[in-house]
Amino acid sequence: MAKPADTRTAGRKPVAKATRSAAETEKIRAALAARRDELRAEYDQTLSEITELQRDRLTDSAGDDQADTGTKTLEREQEISLANSILERITQVERALERLDEGGYGWCERCGNPIPVERLAAFPSATLCVTCKQLEERR
Ligand SMILES: [Zn+2]
C-alpha cells in the first residue's frame, strides 16, 4: 500500500539529479555578499580619488603645462573607467544574489552541474563550470 508521501510525489517531474544543499546556498550567498561589500568599498575609494584628482585639476592647473594637464585628464579618465567597471561588477554580483534566491544561479549553462562554491566566490559572474570553461577556451 502506498503511503500518502508516495502519492504526492507521483506524477511530478523528477528532481534534477544535481541539487545544492541549503548550507551550500548560504555559503554562496555569504561569498557574494562579501564580494559586493568589497567592491562597494573599492568603488567608494575610487570615487574619492576621482574627487581628489578633480580638485587638484581645479586648484593647481594654473601653473601646469599642457603635458601635466593631459596626464591629469588621463588619470581622471582611467579612474572613471575603473569606477564604471567596479559598478558593473557590483551589478553582476547583485544580479547573482537575485538569481540565487530564485534558484537559477550557480549552475553550469553547458552541462547543468553545480558550479563549485569556490569558483562562484572568485568569479561571481561565472556561468560555466571549470571543465566546460576549459573546453570552451580550447575551441
Ligand atoms: Zn559544465
TrEMBL record:
Key word Metal-binding present: yes
InterPro entries found in the cross-reference section: DnaK_N, Znf_C4-type_bac, Znf_DskA_TraR, Znf_DskA_TraR_CS
PROSITE patterns for this protein: ZF_DKSA_1 (PS01102), ZF_DKSA_2 (PS51128)
A Pfam family the protein falls into: zf-dskA_traR
UniProt entry keywords in alphabetical sequence: Metal-binding, Zinc, Zinc-finger
Keyword Nuclease tagged: no
UniProt-annotated stretches for the region Disordered: 1-24, 52-74
One MF annotation (Gene Ontology) recorded for this entry: zinc ion binding
dksA C4-type zinc finger segments: 108-132
Zinc finger DksA/TraR C4-type domain span: 103-138
Record-given protein name: Conjugal transfer protein TraR
Organism: Micromonospora acroterricola
